[in-house]
Amino acid sequence: MLAVDVQELKVRYGKLEAVKGISLQIPPGEVFGFIGPNGAGKSSTIRVLATLLPDFLGSAKIMDLSIRSQPQLVREQIGYVPDFFGVYEDLTAREYLHFFAAAYRLPMSRRKAVVDDVLQLTDLTGKIDSQVDALSRGMKQRLSLARVLLHDPAVLLLDEPASGLDPRARIEMRELLKALKEMSKTIIISSHILHELAQLCTRIGIIETGKMVAQGSVAEIYQRLGVLKIVHVQVVNQSPELIAKLRVMPGVTHVDDQVDRISIRFEEGKLEVEDLHDFIHAQGVRIRMFQPEVMDMETAFMKLTEGQTA
Amino acid sequence: MNLLERYSLPLLTKELIEQANSKRTYILRVVYAVVLYGAALWYYSDLNNGGAAAGLVNLGKGRAFFQLLVNVQTFAIIFLLPAITCGALTVEKEKDTLALLLLTKLSSWTIVFEKLVSRVLAMGTYQLLSLPLFAIVYGMGGVELSGIIHAVISLLALTIVVASVSILCSTWFRTTSEAFILSYVILFFFGCCHAFAIELMYVQTLRMNQRNWPNISQGQSFWQAITAAFSTDTAISLQALAICLASVLIASKVLFARAFVPPRNIILELFQRADRFFNELNESTTGGIVLVPDRETLPTFQPITWRETRKKSLGTFRYQFRILMFLLAPLVLVIAAILSDGRNDFTSPFRGFPAFFWFVSVICLTIHATGVIAAERIRQTLDVLLVSPLTPTEIVLEKLSGVRRLIKILMVPFAVLVLFQAIWTGYVLQGALQAKQRSVDFWLELVTATLVPVFYMPIIMWVGFQFGLRARTQIQAILATLTTVVLACIIPIVFVSTFSVMYQRVFSLILWVSPLQMAFPTSVFGPGYNLFQENTKLAWIVVVVHFALYGIIWWWLRKNALQSFSKVVRRMEPGSRNRQSEAR
């Protein structure tokens, strides 16, 4: 059984087609990172899964429950954190959590224990009787996460949960999400903090103009993008002959002779990094620096997208 | 920088472009034109006895027509202008864009002034719509040029005063609703005891046909007419300008200080202050005895009801009791005065109370009912609520639990009034009425007085809820609800006034469709006759039909609200219509 199964999802707002046929299959326990520029269709997809967008084409299921025909049952299975806080500021943290415990019909006998547990998990026990409007942004976001954990949902839908948080709050949020990952929750998370997604997600999907540009594990995405690799080299006794030999080497596509380094671009399948190193060394030059370019998530994102919106 | 750049008024330009790009501008203008020209057509038709006579017969009858036009314009200024002006700066605050404006080289004075001018110009376009009608009126005769000039100046002065007060409130308050309500409070204050009373008085005296017109004979030149009109209207103009200048100056002085005020619940703060006062009073008088303590409980099974009745301003028992006292105290005082007076010969000792109770009830219910969903939207908590497993019926009914509780509170003064009126007319007046012969059936009056609040208050609640659900802002919903209530009251009256000449008494029964007529059955608001006094049997039938009709309206509004809730808030439900697949 898939935790999330989306087939050919299309969402349209008037003349604007925000999502153009996205398909997702996420098994239970996976953390799926949704990456894309603003207006790419991330929030629309998450809102469909959260049963908050009835006008869509295609099929969407959560824990084998159809969003279209069984939305009430789907709501029992999901926890949704929107891209804004969504907290009642006239309540205390305790009242806020008991409010949603009642809304999710938790048995009275279990409520206190569950509220205490989620507060402990989100490190808000000390703030239990604080007014929500007196909490910091990070605490409010953690309170939102505490809310969605009350009914122990199988799937968490987190729309930009780290947006607007300071570095400390972002790190705390990341640690909290790691804890949830260890609890085997299926998590769909959209974010602009790309390197954090890389550390957290088992799989990522890059979306642009309503289409899924790439989907797979972080390693798979890197591999796909890493077909052309770059190595930056500094040698002590550089000569024009070395540059000429590198340019005709099998697998090398481009050699850029820069002021402080030589940038060598090559096809990964045809030439290994180690072979390149051996070849340069064999030319009788002393290598001061040999640095394969580390492709981070930002680079992957920039390579895969063109900065367009739907 | 050349002169043109220095005085380019960029904010005014942006505001006018925004107004021009908004559909609402054109919709409102068309609606206003329809109302204005519809009223004119209705009146003209009435003047001609339904079209039977025309032409020369109408010569010299322009004054009454002119008075009607001035009335409609006055109504439009008072009703529309605060609505379009109060959001001028509060919307910037709500969208967090005022800070960006303050960072530019525009001075506070310029910002306030350009915002004011943009709204006055918008209102000016509504006023311009009436020019062709003024030309017809002038052609009919009975109105002199100086009279028209005077009316234009008065209306312009009224526009400036209303817009200035509204822009001052918009600068001072955090939300549009607060600015809107306080604008009317200040305008009411002006209307009672200040220069604004003079503006209204001049306009009203035109309507009442009691004003001495400027002493200009026919055939005087245009400039003589203008000079004469201006000489009489100088005071009005100067007062309006003084109010405008003072408002703009105060607004520009406080703009920065009030730009970043946090949102406040003024009603709650008011209650909390009253709370502190009464607690101190209780401490000093009784030593702190509390008969019904408020318990701090957590939600059990109806969380939304818990929040609506425990955490909202009108939630706790103490606050509700105080509202009740506010409404009941004057009534109890009057009852005590009547009982102690010993007189038993007057039949309606509480004529003003139903009007007062209705005014307070309609305002309270409208504000509360329109705000239940609007508040969730403003605080961005609606989505979070919608993803909970609560059904739409549960959400709607629980959200309205606070309003239903308010209705129960508001019913108490009505019940006291009805009960005392019943005892008074049924027993106290019995002796006195033997001589006078009671003219209205006791049970008919009692049943009508009981059913009126029981039916109308929930209907107002559902109308307010429906508009609050659909409108973009609460202020729009409040205006739409109040307009619906006013229209429901006056349309049957206008209808009967228009056609009763042709169809006489039978047709005048339509008057009783109006809630206003049913709420005050012993007064007659149209050209009909007093049904309750003249034909009791027919009155019973009319009452039954009326409340059956309003019962159906009540049932339909409730059903529609429950069924359409998910669709309006775009929540997926089993069997939800998918417009995308339908469009395919």
Concise synopsis of the structure shown:
The complex is a heterodimer of chains A (310) and B (584). With 310 residues, chain A is an alpha/beta fold.
What tags apply to this protein structure?
heterodimer, A: 310 residues, alpha/beta, Rossmann fold, Alpha-Beta Plaits, six-stranded mixed sheet, 35% helix, B: 584 residues, 2 domains, globular
- Count up the domains of chain B: 2
Number of strands of chain B: 0
Cα end-to-end separation of chain A: 32 Å
* Overall number of strands of chain A: 14
Q: What average pLDDT do the residues of chain B reach?
A: 79
Which structural class do the helices and strands of chain B define? mainly alpha
Name the largest protein-protein interface in this structure. Answer: A-B, 43 and 37 residues
* Count of individual helical segments of chain A: 11
Strand count, sense and barrel status of the largest sheet of chain A are:
6 strands, mixed
Quote the beta fraction of chain B.
under 5%
The helix/strand class of chain A is: alpha/beta
- Spans of chain A of at least 5 consecutive residues whose pLDDT stays below 50 are none
CATH superfamily of the largest domain in chain A: P-loop containing nucleotide triphosphate hydrolases
Series of H and E elements of chain B: HHHHHHHHHHHHHHHHHHHHHHHHHH
Q: How far do the termini of chain B sit from each other?
A: 57 Å
Oligomer designation: heterodimer
